[in-house]
């Protein structure tokens, strides 16, 4: 996908959201308009936090893929209670986050082109946790464990409709 295609795709998505806001305004549906504004603001704020995260290799891979596909709805969340280890821990875990993400994308664990994907990074003093939630699952738990056998993985939920995976990266093991 070239730069113009990327721009047109993002512009199209933005115009659709703006058009919905404008329609709510015209119809006097203030509650719906405020709810959508809050949702859009929170999504954009979290995406901006994700874009600026110090795990650059991982972030670059996510956004390279995000702009190359259509039909996917992406949501991002970053949680960190202490800025002191935020930068350091995400930088240290960058390569592992990247490797996990590449396995996820390359194995197409989903079976639909209209997938909703949530990527959540939780940064703690000794751990970075990557949660990946997606719908339209096309693989069984044992296959997922096999694909990610090198990583500390917990399958939070899995069924035909939705899957949530959590990967735990121990910072102390990486610093040694």
UniProtKB/TrEMBL annotation:
This protein's record includes keyword Transmembrane helix: no
GO molecular function, one term: phosphorelay sensor kinase activity
Keyword set includes Phosphoprotein: yes
Keyword terms of this UniProt record: Kinase, Phosphoprotein, Transferase
Pfam family, one: SPOB_a
UniProt superkingdom: Bacteria
Domain SpoOB alpha-helical, chain residue ranges per copy: 9-52
InterPro entries according to UniProt: Sig_transdc_His_kin_SpoOB, SPOB_a
Protein name in the entry: SpoOB alpha-helical domain-containing protein
Organism: Mammaliicoccus stepanovicii
Organism taxonomic ancestry: Bacteria, Bacillati, Bacillota, Bacilli, Bacillales
